[in-house]
Amino acid sequence: MALIALAGAGAVFVLLGTASTAEAAAGPSVRTEGGPLKIRSAPSQNGAILGTLANGTRLTLACQQAGQQITGSVRTTTAWDRLSDGRYVSDAYVARTGTPPASCPPPTWIRPANAPFWGGFRTPQRPTHDGVDLGAPRNSPVFAVAAGTVVTAECNVSPTHVCDVDGSAAVAGCGWYVEIRHLDNSVTRYCHLARRPLVNVGQPVARGQALGYAGMSGNASAPHLHFEVHTGYPATPQNAVDPLPFMAARGAALR
Ligand SMILES: [Zn+2]
After folding, report:
1. Do 206 and 241 sit in the same domain of this protein?
2. Is the four-CA dihedral 107, 112, 113, 119 of positive or negative sign?
3. Ligand 1 centroid vs 207 CA: distance in angstroms?
4. Which tens digit of pLDDT belongs to each residue from 188-213?
């Protein structure tokens, strides 16, 4: 269920390079038939659309990795270019006179729980469901999907409720939950933990470190893990993306 009372201003991303004239001549830029180029959460058209870039926009690219083959205005290729904030554009629409960016390092993320997939991101039935639900049994460990720093570890429920008891459909909020800010500035959120998290705000965590135990605090009618991915910090509904392609692109399929 969606987190309550945490809405804030959406993150603003700066994508444009400030290349000198000489660099600009060789640097990459968007080349379409005229329309905007979609920015995706993963190297595939299955990835969520996170923004667009106008034709001609100069790009600063972090690295390149293989994904869905695309035929674009420049070439047909399986290469996707990762922007500095972790989002992707198809290299089929990127013109350059220099060499392509280096290959991205191999994905190193893991699943947040050893649990089956239960429910998806912003489905027609639950359009405000900003994450996925995994059927984690009560008291099973919940893991950090990648290294990072704990930015939230607290109880989030509607007034007059608490987190140390089972929640229900009548309770609002994420219950006991944790947020991790990762090295690429993305944020992952883990909701409905059974009790106070094992980690504290400001604490660095390693990939695979236990953050707490699955439960049903907050808006939950059965024990499970509600897991969200956000492409920026702080996490907001505006920067939430579908965890399935995001995690799959990092080697951790959730279903
Ligand atoms: Zn959920």
Report:
1. yes
2. negative
3. 22
4. 999 999 999 999 999 999 999 999 99
Average pLDDT over the chain reads: 88
Q: 85 CA distance to ligand 1 centroid (A)?
A: 25
Q: Are 129 and 30 members of one domain?
A: no
**CA 40 to chain CA mean position, Å:** 11
Query: How far apart, in whole angstroms, are the C-alpha atoms of residue 61 and residue 102?
Result: 9
Whole-number Å distance, alpha carbon 229 to ligand 1 midpoint, is 12
Is residue 106 one of the residues assigned to a domain? no
Largest CA distance in the chain: 63
Q: Using the mean position of ligand 1's atoms as its centre, give its distance from the Cα of residue 183 in Å.
A: 25
**Amino acid present at 80:** W
CA of 176 to the centre of ligand 1 (A): 13
Residues with a beta carbon under 5 angstroms from ion ligand 1: 133, 226
Kindly give the distance from the C-alpha atom of residue 205 to the centroid of ligand 1, in angstroms, as a whole number.
Answer: 23
- What are the backbone angles phi and psi of residue 180, rounded to the nearest 5°? -115, 130
In this prediction, residue 107 carries a pLDDT of 64
ipTM of the complex: 0.99
> Are residues 123 and 71 part of one domain?
no
Domain count, the chain: 2
**Residue 147 near residue 183, CB atoms below 8 Å:** yes
Residue 5 predicted with pLDDT over 90? no
pLDDT above 90 coverage of the chain, percent: 71
